[in-house]
Amino acid sequence: MVHVDRRTLLKAGMTATAAGALGMTTTGTAGAAVPAPTIHPTSEWGARPASGAIVVENHKPTYIVVHHAVDPPMNNDFSLSRAFYVSRFIQNLHMDKNGWIDSGQQFTNSRGGYVTEGRHRSLEILRGGTQHVQGANVGNHNSEVIGIENEGLYSTVDVPTALWNSLVSLVAYIAHQYGIAPEFIKGHRDFNSTECPGQVLYNRLPELRTAVGRVLGVPVTRSEAEWPLLKPGDTGRKVQLAQRFLRASGFGVTADGVFGKSTKEAVTALATQAGLPRDTCTAAKAADETGFLGADVWPLIVPADRSTAAWRADLARA
After folding, report:
1. Which ranges carry the Peptidoglycan binding-like domain (predicted)?
2. Which of 18, 42, 55, 152 sits 20 to 30 Å CA-CA off 246?
3. What average pLDDT does the structure give for the chain?
4. How far apart are CA 143 and CA 146, in angstroms?
5. What is residue 27's predicted lDDT score, i.e. its pLDDT?
6. Domain residue ranges of the chain, discontinuous segments joined by +
């Protein structure tokens, strides 16, 4: 069986961190000041006190990460009271089921276009523009990301217009405050093996980057290819390549291009052995994501003869 050492994991994380830091230092917010959107603080929606100390990172975040909040189930209530209810619901799940000290995300965006503060002190620290509150929404990357939960499940349906507009405004403000280039607006799946933020919303991230760049008055450089997300039941060339890499790593799977039971078991075993986090978005999900092969698994199996950027580009073309 393959052994995954700490050096391999650190190498994958450091690659992403270095790329993000480069974007921050070479790109500024050249346009006019971006107005702060209305953000309702924890004191307004009835948040519980955090059960532990809020950690404030003494640096700016590298990435802005978009999530979807699959629970509570979405409906057609677009009111402010619904937004407050969603914030309480998520906090209760994160604290009572996940065992976290508070809401995992720094901000929450409702289907009605209302933005609330998630983890305590996130709004206060964002306004300062030099530090950020550490959340619990992207496994193994929480020291470098700021996360936004968007109410709803967006695997097959699109986001409401109000949610989209408030997302653009919020992300633009965060990017302006921290000097984050639009290229470093990411989806949760760009870091962990998860469906989040849903295929439909994920497909709109290039549009989000363009919209944010327009608000900031900065050009948007094309983002590098990301690791593909493979799921049980998938077929094709990418699956076959993953199976070959798994075989080379010591797993007895057949390279037939069908993501079946043995491939799922191999990926699950590898993820468990490597200590990869699960359930890092909301505490309840619409589907079991066990065995998903995504951004945190690929670096453990691809050959070391190329950079991660080169492998991502090749897999995007496969």
Report:
1. 236-279
2. 18
3. 89
4. 9
5. 37
6. 39-216, 234-317
